[in-house]
Amino acid sequence: MKIRQTGIAVIPKHTLPAGSRWRNRGFSLPRWVDLTGGGGVIALGGGGAYANAGSLHLQPMRYLAQAGSLPEQSPRFALNRDWWWQVAVLVLLLGWLYSSILFHLAIQWSNDANFSHGFFVPAFSLFVLWRDRAKLARTPREPSSLGLLIVAFALFVLVAGVLGAELFLSRISLLLLIAGMVIYFEGWPRFRAILFPWAFLFLMIPIPAIVFNQITFPLQLLASKVAALVLPVLGVPVLREGNIIRLPALSLEVAEACSGIRSLVSLITLSIVYGYLMESRNFVRVLLALASAAIAVMANSLRVLGTGLLVQYWDPELAQGFFHAFSGALVFVVSVVMLFLFHWVLRLGLQHSRHKL
Q: What is the SS3 assignment for 284?
């Protein structure tokens, strides 16, 4: 090895050991490597290695060869393999705890039209997680022991729900348990990153019967009141008794199925999905969700009003059977169109106000 007067020695690249990972495998060499132990360094570049001659002695090239023979197994791969085993064990435990609860939940989704959208909710949450996978990977991992407290609380809620035969509690406990495990293993930053898809899962849980009845009956009264106010203006005499509308041709009962709760829950769910996909401004997403509730109630009132007009002026048989079921689907489509129109008008208004400023 020749020492130049500038104090820099050139080590040709072809002199690296033949079995070295640095030479044969394209390993990225560090810029400066201290091989002397006394302050001398070697700078490894594209054409060769440059040694600082300021040190009193240079170590033989065998040290460079020893540095190149690093362990083949990556510790990150071993950690990932252990992580997958932990996930598999947790999934098996969750399946053992919640298999019966999830089975009956799926049956209710199939049999109860009010909550048939439940199949779609977890699928959309998984889609959001997949879409934000790059953001989640950049989020720092800071495990927190507070997650164990949430897990303990979730298990307590599960036991209370099972012993008390309260399906809502036992189902909600699953979401609490997921939150606790994410916080314990991944930390609060990552839980905040998945907060939206986690909270969206609450829409797949059917409302408790006691709450459901408190919502549906006021909706029934509201629809019947609107019909009783508008029908006389259109020339149809009406006598309302609670949720029963008495017409000259027929008496209409605004039953629970006609309360609009089905379209209300489904439209709110759809508005949240639509807002997430089509809007980046959170306040607009909130406005869309609030507007969907008002649109669903208004559309159902128009359905009852239209049924009254058809019964009086056309055929009383239209109040039941196929047309009655078809009108419900038609009103939901109209509600979706009204939601899109509301978003279009809102966006135009915001653009106009921005240009005005």
A: helix
Tell me which residue of 192, 179, 203 sits closest to 125, measured CA to CA.
203
At residue 27, the pLDDT reads 41
CA-based end-to-end distance of the chain? 72
| C-alpha to C-alpha distance for 60 and 57, rounded to whole angstroms | 9
How far apart CA 93 and CA 107 sit, in angstroms, is 22
Per DSSP, the three-state class of 8 is strand
Please answer whether residues 169 and 161 qualify as being in contact, where contact means their C-beta atoms are separated by less than 8 angstroms.
yes
CB atoms closer than 10 angstroms to residue 55: 17
Please state, in angstroms and rounded to a whole number, the distance separating the CA atoms of residues 200 and 309.
39
Which tens digits make up the pLDDT trace of 157-207?
999 999 988 889 999 999 999 999 999 999 999 999 999 999 999 999 998
Three-point CA angle 321, 322, 327, nearest 5°: 110
Supply the pTM of this predicted model.
Answer: 0.70
The C-alpha atoms of residue 176 and residue 168 are separated, in whole angstroms, by 12
pLDDT of residue 201: 95
Q: Could you give the CA distance from residue 187 to residue 81 in angstroms, rounded to a whole number?
A: 20
Q: What Å distances lie between residue 69 and 28, 72, 250, 298, CA to CA?
A: 14, 8, 91, 74
Domain assignments of the chain as residue spans, ordered by start: 8-68, 75-204, 209-356
Q: Do residues 219 and 264 make contact, with C-beta atoms less than 8 angstroms apart?
A: yes
The answer to whether the beta carbons of residues 112 and 138 sit under 8 Å apart is no
Given this model, what pLDDT does residue 231 score?
85
* DSSP letter for each residue of 135-155: HHHHS--B--THHHHHHHHHH
DSSP per-residue codes, 75-94: HHHHHHHHHHHHHHHHHHHH
What token pair was written down for 142? 């800071």
Cross-strand bridge partners of residue 240: 245
- Segments of the chain with pLDDT less than 50: 1-14, 16, 19-79
Q: And the tokens for 95?
A: 């399946």
